[in-house]
Write a structure and sequence with these properties.
Length: about 375
């Protein structure tokens, strides 16, 4: 029973044995298959019975079942065991005798083992009978040097330019062949930090002069100015208001000149922890201290310079206008004297941080050497 396509109206033939509910037309439309048409297609397929074996196969099976004849061949008996007999051991191969090589003496042409051992030219050899009781005799040879100083140096050239060793703990560059980090104490071979006790250090430096010396000089200058001012008021009749203004201005200038300096404080405890602080004082008043981490720097550099700019000359003129004594002091201390510096360096000796700047060379060297011993930073005084 054919199916009418709903799209094109053509008949769609259902093949024999078709069991699906839908079928596709040639135009592409899926058409439903009625139950009656599907049953007719299944009924049109002839039913097949079970497969019957062929007669040739049955005859071959019957022949195998009814065959009672004995097998044509039987397995043969295993071969008997035969004693191979004793095995002959291989004869050792005799090595040819080694003939000692001899060389003619360079003087008498006698055959000897090596040069310098000729019994006629180089010395006396004891007889075989006396050789057992006699002490061993050493004969000089040209192959053995007479003095160790004359031996050739196996490494006559020094190797330079080797790579520096970097500490895996603090990443500090150490010289080639170093085993212990001088900064953090890390042992490169043991791969751990070595427990070490350090001698405590507590040092304080104040630039050029101490706080007490500066304060004493300031008080003396103030006393002298006050005495001279009072003498001028009572003897010369100077106006008190003018004296008071000049005295206050002079006091401010002297306080700025004598009371502006820095203070360096270096400490190290028993565990080797270094603390470096720098405190500035302006007109004898202390500012907040600044902590410096020495681990961020690579070394210590020192030097001297005399760098005078227009700012120093301008202050010199201003102080000279206010008073003769402050102007002379400023010229002598800021313009005339040589300044010495201690700096913490980075990048192959560049002075990254100016730690000390003053007029004392002795104080400069003392700060540099103490900081080198405390923090382990390299410092070349030359």
């Amino acid at each position: 029973m054919p199916v009418i396509c709903e799209g094109c109206g053509q008949r769609v033939a259902i093949p024999e044995g078709y069991r699906r509910n839908k079928i596709q037309c040639a135009c592409g439309v899926i058409c439903p298959v009625p139950e009656s048409a599907r049953q007719e297609a299944e009924a049109a397929v002839p039913k097949r019975g079970p497969a019957q074996p062929s007669s040739s196969v049955e005859k071959e099976a019957e022949r195998w079942l009814l065959d009672d004849s004995p097998p044509s061949s039987l397995p043969s008996a295993p071969p008997g065991f035969r004693d191979p007999g004793p095995v002959a051991e291989p004869q050792p191969v005799q090595k040819p005798a080694v003939v000692a090589r001899r060389f003619p003496c360079r003087r008498c042409r006698r055959l000897i083992r090596r040069q310098g051992e000729c019994p006629d030219c180089d010395g006396f050899l004891p007889s075989p009978t006396e050789q057992g009781n006699a002490e061993p005799v050493w004969w000089p040879s040209v192959d053995v040097p007479a003095d160790k100083d004359e031996e050739e140096d196996p490494s006559p050239y020094a190797v330079e330019g080797a790579e520096d060793v970097k500490c895996p703990k603090c990443y500090f560059l150490l010289p080639p062949g170093s085993v212990l980090c001088v900064r953090c104490g890390f042992h490169l071979k043991k791969r751990k930090k070595v427990a070490r006790t350090y001698q405590p250090i507590d040092r304080v430096w104040e630039t050029t002069a101490s706080y007490s010396a500066r304060l004493t000089a300031f008080c003396i200058c103030e006393a002298v100015a006050l005495v001279l001012g009072l003498v001028g008021i009572f003897r010369a009749g100077i106006d008190r208001g003018a004296f008071l203004g000049a005295f206050l201005l002079l006091s401010a200038m002297l306080a700025f000149l004598l009371g502006t300096f820095d203070r360096i404080h270096l400490t190290r405890d028993g565990r080797g922890r270094v603390q470096l602080t720098k405190t500035w004082r302006v007109a004898f008043f202390a500012l907040s201290p600044q902590t410096i981490d020495v681990r961020n720097y690579e070394g210590i550099v020192t030097g001297q310079y005399r760098d005078v700019s227009a700012w120093e000359y301008w202050l010199f003129g201003l102080l000279l206008f206010c008073g003769l004594v402050p102007g002379i002091l400023w010229w002598y201390l800021a313009i005339h004297k040589v300044t010495f510096q201690v700096a913490l360096s980075r990048d192959h000796g560049y002075p990254a941080y100016i730690l000390y700047s003053g007029w004392s060379e002795t104080q400069m060297k003392e700060i540099a050497y103490t900081l080198r011993d405390a923090a382990g930073l390299p410092y070349d005084a030359s």
